[in-house]
Amino acid sequence: MKKLIPILILFLIGCSSVQDIDVDIQTQSQQEEAKQRPDYIIYFDSNCCDIMGINKNNFFEIQKTRTDIKKNNIKEVTIIGYASIPGNEVYNKKLSHERALCVCTMLRENTKVNCAIIGAGETDEFGSYRKNRRVEIYFK
After folding, report:
1. φ and ψ at 50, to 5 degrees?
2. What are the CA-CA distances from residue 43 to residues 12, 21, 25, 123 (Å)?
3. Which candidate in 49, 60, 124, 137 could, as Cys together with 40 as Cys, close a disulfide (CB 3.0–4.6 Å)?
4. Integer CA distances (angstroms), 42 to 1, 19, 23, 93, 113, in order
5. If you count DSSP H runs as helices and E runs as strands, how many of each does the chain have, helices first?
6. Helices 18-35 & 4-12 angle (0-180, nearest 10)
7. CA distance 77 to 140
8. For the segment 34-59, what is each residue's pLDDT rounded down to a tens digit?
9. What is the distance in angstroms between the CA of the first residue and the CA of the last residue of the chain?
10. How crowded is the C-beta side of 16, counted as CA atoms within 13 Å?
11. What DSSP designation does 36 have?
Protein backbone atom coordinates (compact mmCIF):
# COMPACT_ATOMS: atom_id res chain seq x y z
CA MET A 1 0.00 0.00 0.00
CA LYS A 2 2.85 2.44 0.83
CA LYS A 3 4.29 1.97 -2.68
CA LEU A 4 0.93 2.81 -4.28
CA ILE A 5 0.53 6.14 -2.50
CA PRO A 6 3.39 7.94 -4.35
CA ILE A 7 2.08 6.60 -7.67
CA LEU A 8 -1.43 7.82 -6.87
CA ILE A 9 -0.06 11.22 -5.89
CA LEU A 10 1.81 11.47 -9.19
CA PHE A 11 -1.38 10.82 -11.10
CA LEU A 12 -3.32 13.31 -9.01
CA ILE A 13 -0.78 16.11 -9.61
CA GLY A 14 -0.70 15.62 -13.34
CA CYS A 15 1.52 12.68 -14.16
CA SER A 16 0.19 11.73 -17.55
CA SER A 17 2.14 8.65 -18.53
CA VAL A 18 3.92 5.57 -17.27
CA GLN A 19 7.15 7.06 -18.62
CA ASP A 20 6.88 9.86 -16.01
CA ILE A 21 6.64 7.25 -13.26
CA ASP A 22 9.70 5.39 -14.58
CA VAL A 23 11.74 8.59 -14.44
CA ASP A 24 10.72 9.11 -10.81
CA ILE A 25 11.62 5.52 -9.89
CA GLN A 26 14.98 5.88 -11.64
CA THR A 27 15.66 9.05 -9.65
CA GLN A 28 14.92 7.23 -6.38
CA SER A 29 17.31 4.47 -7.43
CA GLN A 30 20.01 7.03 -8.16
CA GLN A 31 19.47 8.59 -4.72
CA GLU A 32 19.88 5.19 -3.05
CA GLU A 33 23.09 4.61 -5.02
CA ALA A 34 24.39 8.04 -4.00
CA LYS A 35 24.04 7.09 -0.33
CA GLN A 36 26.71 4.44 -0.89
CA ARG A 37 29.20 6.86 -2.41
CA PRO A 38 32.06 8.02 -0.20
CA ASP A 39 31.69 11.30 1.62
CA TYR A 40 35.29 12.19 0.75
CA ILE A 41 38.08 10.79 -1.41
CA ILE A 42 41.74 11.51 -0.72
CA TYR A 43 44.31 10.75 -3.44
CA PHE A 44 47.91 9.69 -2.84
CA ASP A 45 51.05 9.95 -4.93
CA SER A 46 52.60 6.76 -6.25
CA ASN A 47 54.13 4.40 -3.70
CA CYS A 48 53.32 6.74 -0.76
CA CYS A 49 51.31 6.24 2.39
CA ASP A 50 52.26 9.16 4.62
CA ILE A 51 51.23 12.80 4.89
CA MET A 52 53.88 13.80 2.34
CA GLY A 53 52.32 11.40 -0.17
CA ILE A 54 48.89 12.96 -0.07
CA ASN A 55 48.18 14.75 -3.28
CA LYS A 56 48.72 18.44 -2.56
CA ASN A 57 45.19 19.35 -3.65
CA ASN A 58 43.78 17.02 -1.01
CA PHE A 59 45.00 18.82 2.10
CA PHE A 60 41.94 21.02 1.66
CA GLU A 61 39.77 17.86 1.50
CA ILE A 62 41.23 16.63 4.79
CA GLN A 63 40.41 19.96 6.43
CA LYS A 64 36.90 19.92 4.95
CA THR A 65 36.41 16.38 6.27
CA ARG A 66 37.49 17.42 9.77
CA THR A 67 35.14 20.39 9.66
CA ASP A 68 32.21 18.18 8.59
CA ILE A 69 32.99 15.67 11.33
CA LYS A 70 32.88 18.40 13.97
CA LYS A 71 29.94 20.27 12.49
CA ASN A 72 27.77 17.16 12.11
CA ASN A 73 29.01 15.54 15.32
CA ILE A 74 30.14 12.42 13.45
CA LYS A 75 31.34 9.77 15.89
CA GLU A 76 32.45 7.04 13.46
CA VAL A 77 33.90 6.84 9.98
CA THR A 78 34.91 3.97 7.76
CA ILE A 79 38.12 4.56 5.84
CA ILE A 80 38.97 2.27 2.93
CA GLY A 81 42.43 2.47 1.40
CA TYR A 82 43.26 1.36 -2.14
CA ALA A 83 46.36 0.92 -4.26
CA SER A 84 46.84 0.83 -8.02
CA ILE A 85 47.70 -2.45 -9.73
CA PRO A 86 51.45 -2.01 -10.44
CA GLY A 87 53.53 -3.71 -7.80
CA ASN A 88 53.32 -6.79 -5.66
CA GLU A 89 49.81 -7.71 -4.45
CA VAL A 90 50.93 -8.26 -0.84
CA TYR A 91 52.80 -4.93 -0.82
CA ASN A 92 49.77 -3.12 -2.26
CA LYS A 93 47.50 -4.61 0.41
CA LYS A 94 49.81 -3.27 3.13
CA LEU A 95 50.15 0.09 1.33
CA SER A 96 46.37 0.49 1.09
CA HIS A 97 46.02 -0.22 4.83
CA GLU A 98 48.76 2.29 5.69
CA ARG A 99 47.04 4.94 3.55
CA ALA A 100 43.79 4.43 5.45
CA LEU A 101 45.67 4.59 8.75
CA CYS A 102 47.40 7.84 7.70
CA VAL A 103 44.07 9.50 6.89
CA CYS A 104 42.58 8.26 10.17
CA THR A 105 45.50 9.74 12.09
CA MET A 106 45.07 13.11 10.36
CA LEU A 107 41.31 13.15 10.97
CA ARG A 108 41.81 12.40 14.65
CA GLU A 109 44.18 15.34 15.17
CA ASN A 110 41.33 17.72 15.97
CA THR A 111 38.40 15.35 16.37
CA LYS A 112 37.52 12.37 18.53
CA VAL A 113 36.15 10.32 15.65
CA ASN A 114 36.50 6.54 15.74
CA CYS A 115 37.87 5.00 12.55
CA ALA A 116 37.16 1.61 11.06
CA ILE A 117 40.11 1.02 8.73
CA ILE A 118 40.11 -1.31 5.74
CA GLY A 119 43.04 -1.94 3.44
CA ALA A 120 41.33 -3.13 0.27
CA GLY A 121 44.52 -3.61 -1.72
CA GLU A 122 44.75 -3.32 -5.48
CA THR A 123 42.02 -1.93 -7.65
CA ASP A 124 41.61 -0.93 -11.26
CA GLU A 125 38.14 0.48 -10.74
CA PHE A 126 38.80 3.83 -12.40
CA GLY A 127 41.24 2.68 -15.09
CA SER A 128 43.68 5.33 -13.93
CA TYR A 129 46.59 4.62 -11.61
CA ARG A 130 46.27 8.10 -10.07
CA LYS A 131 42.58 7.67 -9.22
CA ASN A 132 43.09 4.18 -7.85
CA ARG A 133 45.68 5.39 -5.32
CA ARG A 134 43.05 6.68 -2.94
CA VAL A 135 41.32 6.51 0.40
CA GLU A 136 37.54 6.71 0.64
CA ILE A 137 35.91 8.13 3.76
CA TYR A 138 32.37 7.15 4.72
CA PHE A 139 30.51 8.83 7.58
CA LYS A 140 28.38 6.57 9.77
Report:
1. -115, 180
2. 48, 39, 34, 14
3. 137
4. 43, 39, 33, 17, 17
5. 5, 4
6. 130
7. 6
8. 457 899 999 888 888 777 767 667 78
9. 31
10. 0
11. T
Q: Using a cut of 0.90, tell me whether the model's pTM lies above it.
A: no
Helical segments of the chain, H only: 4-12, 18-35, 59-71, 89-107, 129-132
Q: Show me where the domains of the chain are located.
A: 4-34, 38-139
* CATH superfamily label, 38-139: OmpA-like domain (3.30.1330.60)
* Whole-number Å distance between alpha carbons of 98 and 118: 9
Q: pLDDT tens across 109-121, in order?
A: 889 899 999 999 9
